[in-house]
Amino acid sequence: MIKCVKCGQVDNIMKAGYVRGKQRYLCKTCNYYFTHAEKDLSVLTAMKRKRHQTTIIDIAKSLGVSNSTVSRALHGHADISPETRQAVLDKALQLDYQPNQLAYNLVKSKTNTIGMIVPEFHNPFFPNVIIGAHEVLTNAGYNLTIMQSNESYQVEISNTKAMLANRIDGLLISLTQETNNFDHLSVFEKRGIPLVLFNRVCEQINVPKVVVNDFEASFLAVEHLILNGYERIAHLGGPLNLLVSQERLRGYRAAMEKHGKAIEDHMIIQGMLTQQKARIYGQYLLDLANRPDAIFAVNDSAAIEIMLMAKEKGISIPDELGVVGFSDNPESAYIGPGLTTVRQPTYEIGRTTADWILQLVDDEDVILPEKRVLNTELIVRGSSQRCGN
């Protein structure tokens, strides 16, 4: 039974051809054409009515006062009497008035929103940084908008454009593995929008940066392997366009040179460290005729892939192969025999970046250090401790 969506009648309904592949009907009672795709007009009217959001104009009309009186009352102006202000507040509550905070903030040229762009969420490093930053920002009355670049330079550019379009007050960003050009970040400086880089930073832009002591941490990690009797230590590093990769390679080289260990270039691999690439690079190192007896990896994900591959090949860890990672991901403590790694102060990184961006937003003349270098901690577990060492 077909019911007219206009008058509700079920009699005098006849088919009237097809419109865009849908059966069309004619109600001869009210002479109205319709299809099944149409909604009942009464429902549409109700939905439209429901979508209407109460405005200052609605409150003013209900009380018989001016729009400006309502606006001043809502914002607590001293020239509004307590009685009038209370009447406005009561009517606003009755009509379920929700202030347009975005419009109000744009008038003030401030949105109380900080943007954050991270390369990925798979690694616990970035979620922990976000938690630290979020705590500081929310306590200060700011919102945090988070976007993921997915290790893509083009997505990173799109993210920064979206942040600009949403008129953020400041931006926190950690660069992708692909980022070699920084013009999209220079736009923030030109527009007077504060910018703080963290973890993966670049020297080409003169803005505050929050990093860890990558050189020192890597030096101590490799020295730990040497002191545990390992001789031929390979390094599985990240892309050399990233400063963090450069610093960890520099720490590796310094430790090897200090202890008189040969640095073999074919056992130093730098590149994009996806899980698939880590397995390819690990396969190469473990299949060498004179394979390394230890590997220092730029992150825990790569180190864990090395350990899994070594087990598949029957290579004993730590007796035949020592492994050290970087980051102290949660799974590092549970994979047998436990991954030795460098613990980073992720929560403190988030809090520091957030504190700095707030200082820059609140006072454009504030002078911050060019860089804050936070300390790390070497967490020694079974993957690097040979018996007798």
UniProtKB/TrEMBL annotation:
Superkingdom of source: Bacteria
InterPro entries: HTH_LacI, Lambda_DNA-bd_dom_sf, Peripla_BP/Lac1_sug-bd_dom, Peripla_BP_I
Transcription in keyword set: yes
Record-annotated HTH lacI-type domain positions: 54-108
Keyword Transcription regulation applies: yes
Keyword line: DNA-binding, Transcription, Transcription regulation
Pfam families: LacI, Peripla_BP_1
Single Gene Ontology MF annotation: DNA-binding transcription factor activity
The protein's name: Substrate-binding domain-containing protein
Organism listed in the record: Dyadobacter fanqingshengii
